[in-house]
TrEMBL record:
Name of this chain's protein: G-protein coupled receptors family 1 profile domain-containing protein
Transmembrane residue ranges: 21-47, 53-76
Species this protein is from: Adineta steineri
Tagged with keyword Membrane: yes
Top-rank taxon: Eukaryota
UniProt keyword annotations, A-Z: Membrane, Transmembrane, Transmembrane helix
């Protein structure tokens, strides 16, 4: 009996860890994909004259990557998603009649 319980616990733990790794990989891919133009501008500036305002343009991509990572984190975290929905939609005041 204890072997089955241990096996079940380890399987559920492995599923949780796999889910966590998948979410982490998705976040890293989002950050790298959106922030890659900034890295490209920095790389260009080492070898040639970069375009005018290249750091400003690159900064926009950094901000977009942080914003998209935050949105992905909100999607991944269920308690945080529930609390934000509660703040946005508020509590519904329902009146229930009582019999006296």
């Amino acid at each position: 009996m204890s072997r089955r319980v241990t096996l079940t616990n380890s399987l559920s733990r492995a599923k949780r860890e796999l889910k966590m790794v998948r979410r982490l990989v998705i976040l890293v891919i989002i950050i790298f994909a959106v922030a890659s133009p900034y890295a490209l501008f920095v790389l260009i500036s080492f070898f040639t004259a970069p375009p005018k305002y290249h750091f400003r343009i690159g900064y926009i991509f950094i901000n977009l990557s942080v914003a998209s990572a935050m949105i992905a984190l909100l999607q991944f975290t269920d308690p945080l998603k529930a609390s934000i929905k509660k703040i946005i939609y508020g509590r519904l005041n329902t009146v229930t009649p009582t019999m006296t």
